[in-house]
Amino acid sequence: MGVLGLTSFVENTPQLLLPLKIHDTRLVVDGHGLVHYLFHHSKIGYRHGGNYSEYEDLCVKFFKFLNLCNIKVYILFDGAHDLEDKKFRTTKERAKQQIQRSLNIINGGGDRILPVFAFEVFVKVMDGMEIPFVYCDFEADNDIVALANAWGCSVLSQDSDFFVFDVKAGYIQLSHFWWKNPCILHAKKGEDEDQGCPVPDEEAPMVRLPARFVRSVSKRNSHIQGTIYWLSEFEELNTAITAVLKYLRKTEREQIRQKLETSMQMYDLQVGSKFKNYFERCHMDSGLLTFQHCPALPGWAVALFRHGKFPFFCTTVLCQRRHFTFNLIEDVTQKSCNRGPLNVRRVLYGILLKQFSIEESENNRDIMQGGQVDKSKKTLHVMEFDRDNLDLRQTRVEPLFHLPKCGNVPGISNIPELAVASRKCLLMEVLGIDPVMVESFPLDIQLPVAVTVFWVHNADPEIVPSHLQALLLGFLKGCLSESLDQETQHCPETHEDDNLSESKEVPGEDSAKVKGDEPSVTQQGAASFVSGTDERTNVKQLLSKHLGSIKKPTNRTD
After folding, report:
1. Sign of CA dihedral 130, 136, 142, 147
2. How many Å apart are CA 521 and CA 101, to the nearest integer?
3. Could you please report the per-residue DSSP string of 454-511?
């Protein structure tokens, strides 16, 4: 999460950076840093939840440009929050800052908030372009450096922690990674490669790597410079710590020593990289199919987690019984939008923590005293952190382990054993939807319809007609775009030339047929969409029947 003041220190000391034209190499990337950087340093709209199509195009462009320079990227993402709570205070502060940024945006300020599905869009792009990536158990910094050092390549991030790590081939800061104007390269790396600054091709994209520390430092960061010079006088780490403690009161020294040692452990590198074989052989060994300190997560779920298909907040719930909800851009004077789906999360917590509930029940039977359970034992719960007006409030949320119709909630290890019909029944009961009603809709839109009905019934404040109209227009646009994309993928490739606008006759064929009889891609897409008019009319009638009338409140505007 960075060292306070270190980035500005380096930015104001250009002598600490070396120029590098990077190409024909591997590059290990901090996934979370890249997702945030691409969005926050673009002009993509964000005030209405984020323009995902533009963000997707930007991500595709980034990877294509790196491919032009023959840069093979490997992306590592953070997983669950650390078990020792070393970053808990920072996480809370960031959650509070996001609430304030939401207020600033509503009031016309220039703050930005990462859209809620930005990571899902990024993962979709990586899957489509076959970019290798993986989710780590906890914070990815150590795994990133270990993999980069195993391969002898650089690290790309925007986290000042990497200035502290011993990255053998150098750390590239995203703000100095000028990737938007790449050129096709022909030169090879020179003999200075082991110095982290290869002889560049004249047309390669430029980055800047941290160089060795020099004595020309701005006065603005003289305190950091002084600290570095002072520490450089000590050959042993323990000697430096002892020297620091001499300036403190004797009663404080042991506590400060423990904090220093804990902080330094964050930068201790593991021997080798557990992800090296995975990326080189595309194979997950048993070590990668086990989540550290969380044996309750089965191997199939860990495999999905590694590929970004299992929400990483669920691993935090499993490991720490804690969840920070995502704060959206919304009216901060109203209730948080996360209140509506609270029961959905309670069932999710029940699925995740079912095994712990069973163990707790067995323990309670063991401690029965005079026919009474020891009530001093705390009830199994998840601590949620969510917005309450302009404050960040924590609430104890008890999981749901039993539902009226489906009975006992299955544990996560039992999910593969459930029949599809049972899974669907469970989902419909959680959403409060009649399964018979859902089955009256076409199969491909049953889930969106069910979620829409749930939203209408549980939204607080209540929605107004324009909200539902906007959602339905989004469905319509998505269906039409998908139809056009499919038609485009199946149409034969065309070659552009100067005579593209001129019609060409095909031997043995009627030229009029070639020019005018075949429908265009747009016509085909529109035809396939219009052909389902009767079906969509039926959908509209069914929605009206099951949603009921949505009345516009008199005390508010659309």
Report:
1. negative
2. 43
3. HHHHH-SSPP-HHHHHHHHHHHHHHHHHHHHHHHHHHSPP----TTTTS--PPTTS-H
Q: How far apart are CA 150 and CA 485, in angstroms?
A: 41
Summarised one tens digit per residue, pLDDT across range 196-224 is 333 333 334 444 445 444 334 445 567 77
How far apart are alpha carbons 323 and 384 in whole angstroms?
5
Distance CA 26, CA 384 (A): 40
- Which tokens go with 510? 């009627």
Tokens matching residue 133: 């990536």
Q: Of all helices (H) and strands (E), which one includes residue 388?
A: strand 382-388
Q: Is 73 helix (H, G, I), strand (E, B) or coil?
A: strand
Please give the Cα distance from 21 to 207 (Å, whole number).
6
Domain map (residue ranges) of the chain: 6-265, 337-418, 453-489+518-553
If we measure between CA atoms, which residue out of 461, 445, 431 comes closest to residue 558?
Answer: 461
Contacts of 175 (CB under 8 A, 6+ apart): 37, 41, 158
Across the range 266-277, mean pLDDT stands at 77
pLDDT, average across residues 144-153? 93
Residue 496's pLDDT is 41
Please tell me the predicted confidence (pLDDT) of residue 22.
86
Report d(CA 534, CA 442) in Å as an integer.
12
CATH topology of domain 6-265: Rossmann fold (3.40.50)
CA distance linking residue 546 with residue 484, whole number of Å: 30
Taking residue 110's Cβ as centre, other Cβ atoms within 10 Å add up to 7
Tell me how far CA of residue 312 lies from CA of 76, 131, 316, 356, in angstroms: 13, 20, 7, 19
The three-state secondary structure class of 28 is strand
Cα–Cα distance, 431 to 343 (Å, whole number)? 9
